[in-house]
Design a protein that fits this description.
The chain has a two-stranded parallel ribbon. By secondary structure, the chain is mainly alpha-helical. It has five helices and two strands. It is extended. It starts with 8 loop residues before the first helix and ends in an 11-residue tail after the last helix. It has a domain of about 100 residues.
């Protein structure tokens, strides 16, 4: 299970949508000299999952999903690898760049989760490559 899959579904879906929108926006406004950077932070030692947030494991039938996510957040709180002050410095640095990255992963946990996700996607795509290619015209077919 990656960090990305531990997030509640609606939160993860919203972030995925904003990421896709940001990628498209970057391509559309890039020729105008406007830059877009998607920041994908890992866990940082803030009070996000601490006393500032009310976490509830919910109903027993959701123990393996919602309950597991809440237990993870509670156990991870205070042990996150990210230093908020260092993240702030990186954000200020990126904002000063003339050619900032489209995507920036903040923290070793974010990098590990993103790398695993990308490799899983490539592996899945390779597994289904023949079926994907089967929809192309063959070289001897006539096209209208």
């Amino acid at each position: 299970m990656t960090l990305r899959s531990r997030k509640p579904l609606a939160n993860a879906a919203a972030k995925f949508g904003v990421e896709g929108f940001s990628e498209s926006l970057s391509k559309e406004i890039g020729p105008l000299g406007i830059k877009v950077t998607i920041i994908e932070p890992g866990g940082f030692r803030t009070d996000f999952a601490g006393s500032s947030t009310q976490l509830s494991e919910g109903r027993p039938e959701y123990d393996s999903t919602v309950g597991a996510a809440v237990r993870f957040q509670k156990s991870y709180n205070g042990t996150q690898p990210g230093d908020p002050a260092k993240a702030a410095a990186v954000l200020l640095h990126v904002a000063s760049l003339s050619e900032p990255p489209l995507r920036l992963l903040l923290g070793s946990d974010s990098y590990a989760a993103a790398e695993k996700s990308a490799l899983d996607k490539v592996e899945s795509d390779r597994q289904w490559k023949d079926l994907s290619f089967s929809t192309d015209y063959s070289s001897d077919e006539t096209h209208v």
